[in-house]
Design a protein that fits this description.
single chain; mainly beta; SH3 type barrels; 5 strands; 0% helix; globular
Length: 63
């Protein structure tokens, strides 16, 4: 995913889980996410973001 396409408030999937973007650090290209289930905050690098147009939680299923 291109770094300039990531916006605060959007939902992103990553190798660490899905979450809502709360902060974007352009200097280090780090994205800070809040987990959709328990509001736990975590950070991921740009390379860890999954470029998937249909984001799902761990409990969701593709239909």
């Amino acid at each position: 995913m291109d770094f300039d396409k990531i916006r605060i408030g959007m939902i992103c999937g990553s190798q660490k889980g899905s979450g809502t973007v709360t902060w974007v650090d352009g200097a280090t290209q780090t994205i800070y996410l809040t987990d959709l289930n328990d509001n736990r905050s975590f950070e991921v690098g740009l390379e860890e973001i999954v470029d998937d147009p249909q984001i799902h939680n761990h409990d969701d299923y593709y239909y």
